[in-house]
Amino acid sequence: MDFHHYRILIQQGRLTELFGLMARENAQIEIPELRNTLTVLQSRWEIHRQHISRGVLTAEEQQAQLSELSRDLLIFLNQLQAQQTPIFLSKKNDFIPFWVSLFLLIIILALLWLIPCPSASQYRFFTIALALSAAGFTAVLPNFFQFYHKGFQLGGAMLVFFVVAGFDPARPVAANRCDVNFAQTIYVHGAKGKHDRLIVNQGSVVMLMPGGEREAAIDKEGKAVFTDIDAKWKGRDVQFYLRHDQPYRLTRSDSLYKLEEGRAIYLEAGLDGIDKLYGNITDEAGAPIAEVKVTIQTIHTLTDSLGNFELLIPINIQQKFQHVICAKKGYIIFENTQTPIHTKTPFNIILKRSN
Prior knowledge:
Blueprint: H1 3-11, H2 15-24, H3 32-54, H4 59-83, H5 96-114, H6 120-139, E1 146-149, E2 152-155, H7 156-167, H8 171-178, E3 182-189, E4 204-209, E5 212-217, E6 223-229, E7 237-243, E8 248-250, E9 257-258, E10 265-271, E11 276-282, E12 293-296, E13 299-302, E14 308-312, E15 321-327, E16 334-340, E17 349-350
Parallel strand pairs: 3-10, 11-17
Antiparallel strand pairs: 1-2, 3-6, 4-5, 4-7, 7-9, 8-10, 11-14, 12-13, 12-15, 15-16
């Protein structure tokens, strides 16, 4: 109950509005005598209004009755306020904000223990949760704060929420603990998953940052570590690409990745240019051979009249090296189990005639 607001209504003579508000909160009055007193006071107000509408009272009598009723209402409010518990509200349901706030506070403490230096988005979540927790504790304090102005109402819980969320009391602590340089770990893996170490002890990962690039070598675990990154980059998005002698490319080369201390970034990569084998086939005299069957696993193609061929390799059988077979009647079959596809160089061979 907002006793301050009730007293303002009495001073302004807005007793109809007052009794309307108190009727909705009548269940909170636990002492039967006080409930009966409220009923009597409301009846007196209704009788007073009837007398005014009938014109049976003089102006002096109207003012005298209104003053007496207002005085009795103030006495009643003092008695009602005195019967309430001084710290917490009396109803069990009134403790719901308290328990919710306590739960949020425990969650915040647990997360801060697990994430001592949160990212920008995590930090904002913590701040809002802390503000909600403080507002919940305030909600169980009777008459902590109430503000009314031309129909606008601001309660103590809402005020505390905005103050805590806006003032951000955790910022000084976070600044001392988290505004230090950090390291970021990158793992490069293949299409089979995070444990598919595609590149080890070779190549490097390049991080694109405004004003320049940073490069870190890939070690035997397929890991690259960027050390001593400026603290201002925590929680910010960057791009990466691979630097390698072979045409390794990131699967999602245009993606942005958030830098977060203590949390690794996984980059999926693969060889670029392993989707096609092309070249030329001639005989020992250098003449082109047409209709030579070039086979890789379950797919094949034939050379044209100039001995040229191009074989497109489906994604499900693409790999760095392929088993290639070239065959035509009257010629010795050519077979190479380690044909390099990723080098993107023409596959030119010479077929010898069979005896």
